[in-house]
Design goal:
Layout (H helix, E strand, L loop, with lengths): L1 H11 L8 E11 L2 E8 L2 E7 L2 E13 L2 E19 L3 E21 L6 E18 L4 E19 L4 E13 L23 E14 L4
Antiparallel strand pairs: 1-4, 1-10, 2-3, 3-5, 4-5, 5-6, 6-7, 7-8, 8-9, 9-10
Length: 215
C-alpha cells in the first residue's frame, strides 16, 4: 500500500508543470556486493553478503531554482544474499531479497553558460520496504527501514529537453536502535536479534526528460 501511494503522489503532482520546470528521470544502476555480518554468541550469528545486481528506478524532480531540484524517487532491487548462520547447527543458504526504496531529497546543479554538461550532487532520505525469503524455513520476512542516498554525476544535454545521465551513488538501509533484524535465520520462522545495515555502492546512469513550461 505504501508503494502504491508513493508512486501515485509522484505522478499526480505532475499537474503543476505550468508553474515551474519539471524533470522526469529514469535510472538504471549496477549495485555492487555488500558484506553483512552480525554476532551475539556462537548460537546467534550470521555472515555473508548481498550480491551485486541491477537497480532500476524513476523519479519526478521539481526545479525550484535553475540550479536546485526537489526530487521524489523510487528504486527497485532484486538480488540474493548467500549467508552462513546458526539454526540448530551451522547452515548456509541463499536468501532471496527484494528492496523497494522511496526517497525524497534535493539536488544541486553546476553548469556554465552554453555548456551541454551539467554536474550535480544530491542527498536523499526516506524508507525501504524489505522482502526476504528464507529457503530453509520457507518464510518471507517483511520490514520497513530508514534509508538514505548520496550521489553525484553529470547530465549531458543532447537537446533542450533530453539528457543522458551518468551517476555514482551510495545507498544505505539503516537499522534503528532496537529496530529488529533483516535476516530470518532462526528456527520456526523466528529471526536472530543481531543485525547489520546495508551499504551499497552503485554506478550507472539513465535519462532525463525536461518538460517545457506551459504559457
Amino acid at each position: 500500500m505504501k508503494k502504491i501511494l508513493f508512486i501515485a503522489v509522484l505522478f499526480c503532482a505532475m499537474h503543476d508543470l505550468s508553474a515551474q520546470k519539471f524533470r522526469l528521470n529514469g535510472y538504471l544502476m549496477h549495485a555492487f556486493d555488500d558484506r553483512v555480518d552480525s554476532y551475539n554468541d556462537p548460537n546467534e550469528f550470521y555472515r555473508g553478503k548481498i550480491m551485486r545486481s541491477a537497480m532500476w528506478g524513476v523519479s519526478g524532480e521539481w526545479m525550484r531554482q535553475p540550479n536546485l531540484g526537489l526530487e521524489i524517487q523510487y528504486l527497485n532491487q532484486r538480488t540474493t544474499a548467500p549467508l552462513t548462520y546458526f539454526n540448530n547447527g551451522v547452515r548456509s543458504s541463499e536468501f532471496q531479497l527484494q528492496v523497494n526504496h522511496f526517497l525524497i531529497g534535493t539536488n544541486k546543479y553546476f553548469r556554465t553558460d552554453k555548456s551541454p554538461v551539467e554536474f550535480f550532487g544530491g542527498l536523499s532520505a526516506g524508507f525501504s520496504l524489505i522482502d526476504l525469503y528464507n529457503p530453509d524455513t520457507r518464510n518471507t520476512t517483511n520490514r520497513t527501514k530508514f534509508s538514505w542516498l548520496i550521489k553525484g554525476g553529470a547530465n549531458f544535454w543532447i537537446s533542450s529537453q533530453l539528457a543522458i545521465k551518468t551517476q555514482v551513488q551510495l545507498l544505505s538501509v539503516v537499522q534503528s536502535v532496537g529496530g529488529g533484524f533483516f535476516f530470518g535465520t532462526g528456527g520456526s520462522g523466528a529471526a536472530v536479534s543481531p543485525y547489520s545495515s546495508i551499504y551499497q555502492f552503485g554506478l550507472g546512469g539513465g535519462l532525463v526528460y525536461q518538460f517545457k513550461n506551459k504559457k
